[in-house]
Amino acid sequence: MGDANFHIIPLIDIHKEGIVKTLHTLMDEVYTLVFQYGGSMSGEHNDGLLRTSYLSQMFTPEIVRLFEKTKDIFDPLAILNPGKKVYGDKGFAWNHIDTK
Question: What global pTM score does this model have?
Fold first, then answer.
């Protein structure tokens, strides 16, 4: 932890039975707490696959629509980083992580 940044890196085997469910629960709880205190889930990093589904909790609907509009302008074919920052959800993200 430094300058108010927490780098939470769970050093666990995601192939172990039940761990993915535990990670979903932890992410929900940690982000809820962060947002409750007005914090940001991404700090100096961007949002990526795993954080995309939480953007609507951190930003207003208007801001999320601006993210989508920007994506549509610069990537009208939706081929660059699909499901990142916009148009993604938890299912999409976890389907792209090798948990088996």
Answer: 0.79
